[in-house]
Amino acid sequence: MTEQERLRVFQEIETGAVTDAMVQHQVGCWMKGVYPTKPGMRIFGRARTAQFTYVVPPDKEMNQFEIIERCRPGEVMVWNVPSEANICGENIMHFLGNHQLNGLIIDGYTRDVETIKEMGIPQFTKGAAIMPAPRNCRVVERDLDIPVTCGGVVVSSGDYVFGDSDGVLVVPEKDIDLVLNQAMLNMEYEKRMEAAIDGEADSSMISEVFKTKVLYQG
Fold this sequence. Notes:
By secondary structure, the chain is an alpha/beta fold. Helix content is 34%, strand content 24%. The protein has helices spanning 3-12, 15-25, 64-69, 90-98, 113-119, 176-198, 203-210; strands at 29-30, 35-36, 43-51, 53-54, 76-80, 86-88, 103-107, 109-110, 123-125, 127-128, 137-138, 148-150, 153-155, 160-164, 167-171.
């Protein structure tokens, strides 16, 4: 698939169909404790990672706006932030939206929650915090696009992330087309199951629907 085709599929499928595909093919992983700032937000796209640290001279720090400018439209930033204070607020999310990114996932905290909810730009975090992170809790050049821990799992730039109110899942770049094709088959299966239940099928009829679940062979 092309990148645009992948993003289109993400718009059309459910996280449940993708998570089932990951189980069926034994790939990918699931974040813990990272959820949308506003229930109902969906996030999807290719990850671009950044590891925050406590920067001291002679290292030169980069601010959050500079990190955003390194990304391409449709990508999702994934940050690891070693602080229980906030690293993000409405200005950063507004800037992110202007650059057409598909959102931000933080193993860390945010502020301006009510405003961000109204903005509608997807943001997934560990929660809210009014205290700001220390001024030198920032990123240096060498800590961009490296594997980072987010929600207890390792995410690399190029991996794909997909999340909603149920949580966030991560699919390795090499497996994304396998998983998305399987997820589309799973969505078709779910429609058959829903139709059977809507028709008041009994357990024996449901068992017959179970048999129609197809494993994508590539």
